[in-house]
Design a protein that fits this description.
The protein is mainly alpha-helical and 289 residues long. It is 74% helix and 0% strand.
């Protein structure tokens, strides 16, 4: 939510933006380490398509994506994870996010027509990288990740045969939210937390994902996206605002007893000033009514 209207105070926003910039620098250091472990003859193409902006994937803006790393880094701090585990988890998060985003672009036809084969091959090169990163944790971490990842991978198949409506949209959103939930839950698995704590962190990641995705859907439709599976297309404005308020309250509840800094950062990710945001994304007809 860095570039959207926020309910954070000026000091809170500046503090969060400083943290985010520091986190971005660490993320870029992690990327440098990740690509060093690839075969030398594919480093350049993997870096171009997976970890930087590229004409091959024109809808991908500043890369790698920071939002997911902010969530995981804050969760790792809340769990007091040892630095090696925290770094390994952040690397896994970066590769997981970029892998799923490339696959999504391929499915949506958002890859330059002369670069589709390269994008497919890069996505496949990221799979052994993911497996290598997972192998640094205990065995049940890989099993946990794979089980949760299946939920995300099934969404396009279900979406292709379902009729778009609000109820199905919400159901698919819940499954997509496993992208964040499997990573925040994995942090708790790696840290040997209880089942209740693992479930709590899964819910936290999933809720932040839902909030972010609904906001993004709503904004994209305003920009002329032709997408039948869009929150703005399928839900009226009051339902969207109610859903966002529920997400924010859930994050508040799930982080209530976390240490101050990570609690504030996680809440900042859903601290949307809905009135100001609503005005900024309203269509001309809505603004004049």
């Amino acid at each position: 939510m860095l570039y959207r209207p926020s309910t954070l105070s000026g000091d809170e926003r500046r503090e969060f933006e400083t943290y985010a910039e520091d986190c971005r620098e660490e993320m870029l250091d992690h990327v440098a380490t990740i690509v060093q472990e690839l075969p030398p003859d594919v480093v350049e193409i993997v870096y171009e398509l997976a970890f930087s902006t590229s004409d091959a994937l024109p809808k991908r803006e500043r890369r790698p994506k920071l939002d997911t790393v902010l969530v995981i880094d804050s969760v790792a701090e809340a769990l007091s994870m040892p630095a090696p585990d925290r770094d390994a988890l952040c690397k896994l998060t970066i590769v997981t996010q970029e892998y799923f985003d490339i696959v999504d672009d391929l499915l949506d036809g958002d890859v330059a027509s002369d670069r589709e084969t390269e994008a497919l091959l890069v996505s496949q090169l990221l799979v052994p990288t993911l497996m290598g990163l997972l192998s640094r944790f205990k065995a049940d971490a890989s099993t946990y990740w794979a089980t949760q990842a299946q939920e995300v991978m099934c969404v396009p198949m279900v979406e292709s045969t379902a009729t778009p409506d609000a109820e199905t949209y919400r159901s698919l959103l819940d499954r997509q939210a496993s992208l964040y939930g499997m990573l925040t839950g994995l942090a708790a698995v790696v840290n040997d937390e209880s089942d209740d704590t693992i479930e709590r962190y899964e819910r936290l990641g999933e809720t932040i994902y839902r909030h972010r995705q609904v906001v993004l859907d709503y904004e994209q439709y305003q920009d002329g996206e032709d997408d039948p599976w869009n929150a703005r297309q399928l839900m009226d404005e009051s339902a969207v605002l109610s859903l966002l308020a529920t997400h924010e309250q859930t994050v508040d509840d799930l982080t209530a007893d976390l240490p101050g800094p990570p609690r504030g950062r996680l809440r900042a990710l859903v601290a949307l000033d809905t009135s100001a945001w609503q005005a900024s994304v309203s269509r001309p007809a809505e603004k004049s009514s």
